[in-house]
Specification:
Blueprint (H helix, E strand, L loop, with lengths): L2 H10 L2 E7 L6 H11 L8 H6 L6 H11 L6 H17 L2 E8 L1 H5 L5 H19 L2 E9 L4 H11 L8 E5 L11 H9 L5 E4 L5 H9 L5 E4 L7 H10 L2 E4 L1 H6 L11 H6 L3 E4 L4 H4 L3 H12 L3 H13 L5 H18 L1
Parallel strand pairs: 1-2, 2-3, 3-4, 5-6, 6-7, 7-8
Helix pairs in contact: 5-7, 16-17
The chain binds hypoxanthine and zinc ion (ZN).
Zinc ion binds next to strand 1.
Length: about 350
């Protein structure tokens, strides 16, 4: 197989996406359309000016813009349109299942009711399933720059809607906001019977990964790419089969790694970690899942077996039922068998 055959194979694979923030899929075109529709002013003259601001030097420099742009999201239809736009692009990249983060506190803090956000996102998921056959679930993320008490209040607001929330996560500014600050919050999430994930080891140290596992009961680690800085943490992740939702373009755009060739992805794979590939905030970081696959292909030239492993990991690491996982993996196997 030539390198370009391997790339085509990887781009066309059926796969799951497990780390994407719906607010991070807000493309400049939609942001300006919603700004006009809602009579909201964005702090940029036009789409080109907004795109020119996508030059980040850290997670925080990105988050500042990400939260500012979210201000255009006001109505149930806005959230529906945002979700549909993501699902259309994801489906075009071969994504057949997505576990999608949403940040309700970004919206409730602006006076948007929790139900407006959730209803709109669910409208989009239902329409996406009809149009493209894509399966989607929501994971509610708490903002770690806020206090644990504020997050507990958000959890109380979410409790009437638990059937529509698949799991809970932790995102936003990592440095200075360790998982240990949210022990009570995540104990409550687990009591409610939901799987828990957490961003850890993106900009923060490997100890935050250990805290997320031991103190929060995280079942997957979002990013986790700094695990390579502590061999004991990396060995543990591999031995326990804890999935890492790695986002290569995000990590290079936010300067976690200077360039793709320096990314820890090959070291994580070599250590036997259960890695998945994801797009994080694709509107801001240069593309959706297949753009990440292209960038990884160019830097590392993985073989077909590695791409198969990454796609298979994405299904195995999902929070779907065993029956769903088995069916998706059978689809993946059929795809690879036909390509041989
Ligand atoms: N890290 C932390 N918080 C986030 C991210 C991220 O990559 N994207 C959106 N919120
Ligand atoms: Zn993220």
């Amino acid at each position: 197989m030539t390198a370009s055959d391997v790339l085509s194979l990887a781009l066309g694979m059926p796969k799951a996406e497990l780390h994407v923030h719906i607010e991070g899929t807000l493309e400049p075109e939609l942001a300006f359309a919603l700004a006009r529709r809602n009579g909201v002013a964005l702090p940029y003259a036009d789409e080109a000016a907004l795109k020119a601001a996508y030059a980040f030097d850290s997670l925080q420099s990105f988050l500042d813009l990400y939260y500012a742009c979210a201000d255009v999201l006001r109505t149930r239809d806005d959230f529906r349109d945002l979700m549909l736009a993501y699902l259309e692009r994801a489906a075009a990249d071969g994504v057949i299942h997505a576990e999608i983060f949403f940040d309700p506190q970004t919206h409730t803090a602006r006076g948007i009711p929790f139900a407006t956000v959730l209803d709109g996102l669910d409208d989009g998921l239902a329409e996406g399933a009809r149009r493209w056959g894509i399966s989607g679930r929501l994971i509610l993320c708490f903002l770690r720059h806020l206090s644990e008490d504020e997050c507990l209040a958000t959890l109380a607001e979410a409790e009437p809607y638990l059937a529509r929330i698949h799991g809970f996560g932790l995102d936003s500014s990592e440095r200075g906001h360790p998982p240990s600050q949210f022990v009570r919050l995540f104990a409550r999430c687990r009591e409610l019977g939901k799987p828990v994930v957490a961003h850890a080891g993106e900009e923060g140290p490997p100890e935050y990964i250990t805290e997320a596992l031991d103190l929060l009961g995280a079942r997957r680690i979002d990013h986790g790419v700094r695990a390579v800085d502590d061999p004991a943490v990396l060995t543990r992740l591999a031995e326990e089969g804890i999935p890492l939702t790695v986002c290569p373009l995000s990590n290079t755009r936010l300067c976690v790694f200077k360039e793709m060739r320096e990314h820890s992805l090959p070291r994580l794979l070599a250590a036997g970690a259960k890695v998945t590939l994801n797009s994080d905030d694709p509107a801001y970081f240069g593309g959706y899942l297949n753009a990440n696959i292209r960038a990884v292909h160019e830097a590392f030239h993985f073989d077909a077996a590695t791409w198969y492993r990454l796609a298979r990991n994405s299904f195995e690491a999902s929070f779907a039922s065993d029956a769903e996982k088995t069916a998706w993996i059978a689809r993946l196997d059929t795809y690879f068998a036909a390509a041989r």
